[in-house]
Amino acid sequence: MRTIETQVLVIGGGATGVGVARDLAMRGVEVVLVERRELASGTSSRHTGMIHSGTRYVLRDPRAAVECYRENQTLRRIAPQCVVDGGAYVVLIPDDDPAYVPLWIEGCRAAGIPIEEISVGQVLRTEPAVNPAIRRAFRSPDTTGDPWRLIEANAASARQYGARILTYHRVLSLVEEQGRVVGAGCRDEITGEAVQIRAALVINAAGVWAAQVAATVGLSVPLLPSKGVMLAFNRRAINRPVLRCHPPSDADALMPSHSVLLSGSTDGDICEPDDVSINPAHVQIVLRESEKILPGISRSRRLRAWSGVRPLFIGEQAHDDTRQITRSHAVLDHESRDGKPGLLTIVGGKWTTYRLMAEEVADLAAGKLGVTRPCRTHEEVLPSDDLARHIWPGAALREVETSATSNELVCECELALRADVERCVREHDARTPSDLRRLARVGMGTCQGGTCGYRAAGLLHDLRRPDPRETCAALQDFGQERWHGATATADGVHLRQMRLNELLYTNVLALPAVVRLLPHEQTIGDRPQ
Ligand SMILES: Cc1cc2nc3c(=O)[nH]c(=O)nc-3n(C[C@H](O)[C@H](O)[C@H](O)COP(=O)(O)OP(=O)(O)OC[C@H]3O[C@@H](n4cnc5c(N)ncnc54)[C@H](O)[C@@H]3O)c2cc1C
Fold first, then answer.
1. From the CB of 206, is ligand 1 less than 6 Å away?
2. Which of 226, 211, 224, 225 lies closest to 334, judged by CA?
3. By alpha-carbon position, which residue is closest to atom 21 of ligand 1?
4. Helix, strand counts (H, E) of the chain
5. How far, in Å, from the CA of 221 to the mean position of ligand 1?
6. CA-to-CA distance for 512 and 367, rounded, in angstroms?
7. Ligand 1 pocket, 14 CB below 6 A?
8. How close is the Cα of 512 to the center of ligand 1, in Å?
9. In what helix (H) or strand (E) does residue 262 lie, and over which residues does it extend?
10. Which domains does the chain have, with CATH numbers?
């Protein structure tokens, strides 16, 4: 068994955990972070990428609204490479109650969120796909960002300050000695080796799994896992997010993301933390509601559906409707709360507010460790790299048109180049097509990996020379993840194209059964060749 000693152990490599590791490392604290899979493999990569300004929450959840606006502004400053530098339109559609608008305007004013009424004509001139029947419109500071880039940037910064980030290390149980949490027993998911990590303080940032982690030492964390479904369309019909001006409800926001359009999400499907199955009824809700903002969008090609599970902190709140549960967060000091020192839990919140969540729990941790250096994560700009150009489709296109030849393109839909793949391997230790998806958006566009998956896998194989079985397994994993989402929404021509891809992979390329669309009576087999 391997043993590691550190000052602070952070559990969870989502936005919150990586933010905590960065914050503490910048204060000079020795930190080890463990993540059971790759970074951002939990809810932090399964959302719609909206950097909220808080306008959604001003009436029901004013604390969350204020936090969102503050962090929206902070992220624009510290992570310009991960945030689209624009705003959103908030529109009143014919279904919405006009009486809500003055209350909402007053709520935004009270929360300090700058909104501005604009004419319907101005909206329709700049975003002609928006429902022409909208009755009022406002500009708001809501925008979008890239969750993977932001986590990578936080992780890079944390490492620069000395934090150790151990991916594929699963916490099996917290370790308790004489009533105090003193570390965690982990398993290296690649080698199978047992690893014990001993720490003066453990921070549980395991998101929707935080209750499971705390339960290993008999503690309860009142979390409600609430699943939501989102859809990606291949038509980037708008260039800024468009939200409805009404109390938050299912699929009432649409937003451009890189080359595609996202819609979502639904809420209220209470489930197990690991359940990311896609509820077909929720897909229909997203289609129906999206149509109200962008008429005709439901007839566009649906690239995929996916789901994520919200870690809603219920505390003492009564809840008939999950949308009434706060989107703010809670820091639990298990010493004062449960008489169990050595463990802090950070739960709830939003991706938008990850930095603030990290700051609050790091402040508490620093106090316990006697560290006096203050938080600086709101001041210091996060590191950037060349791959950041992917957040602006125009920038990627310009580069391809001016300097790349077509045989350098690995992913045509997302304009990822051979040089991008090489950089991902060299600088980010990318091992699989799924890593390339997160880092360079390979497979995120119209073909959903059908055309670029095998190229990416082949190129990775050339660059890394692993066991061929590893390459085939990684390609299969990538394809199945993509097709899982695509089959949930595909119909007609799209379904036929997927079937063609399936046959190409299995019968022409003799590759593993990347696609499991229909029974494989016509395939050669799914063993790696
Ligand atoms: C459908 C949906 C849409 C959303 N849309 C938005 C949005 O547009 N904007 C926004 O701001 N927020 C949005 N959110 C909320 C946001 O996604 C989450 O609040 C945020 O990502 C949570 O981050 P986290 O780091 O706390 O949790 P996670 O990202 O889930 O991180 C927890 C990590 O802990 C790891 N872990 C779990 N157990 C263990 C273990 N035993 N050992 C080691 N590691 C472990 C997991 O693998 C995971 O990576 C949305 C959420 C959902 C579900």
1. yes
2. 211
3. 44
4. 15, 21
5. 16
6. 53
7. yes
8. 31
9. strand 260-264
10. 2-43+148-222+327-369 (3.50.50.60), 83-141+227-304 (3.30.9.10), 388-508 (no CATH)
pLDDT digits (tens, 9 = 90+) for 48-62: 999 999 999 999 999
Angle CA 72–75–79, to nearest 5: 155
Q: What is the pLDDT of residues 410-461, one digit of tens each?
A: 998 888 899 899 999 998 889 999 999 998 899 988 888 888 998 999 999 9
Distances (CA, A) of 270 to 49, 208, 229, 249: 22, 12, 12, 16
Q: Of 43, 51, 197, which is best to mutate to test ligand 1, by the most ligand atoms within 8 angstroms of its C-beta?
A: 43
* Residue 350 Cα to ligand 1 middle (Å): 8
Distance CA 222, CA 216 (A): 15
Query: How does DSSP assign 408-465, residue by residue?
Result: GEEETTTTEEHHHHHHHHHHH---SHHHHHHHH-TT-STTTTTTTHHHHHHHHHHHH-
Q: Which residues contact 256 (CB under 8 A, 6 or more apart)?
A: 144, 236, 238, 239, 240, 241, 262
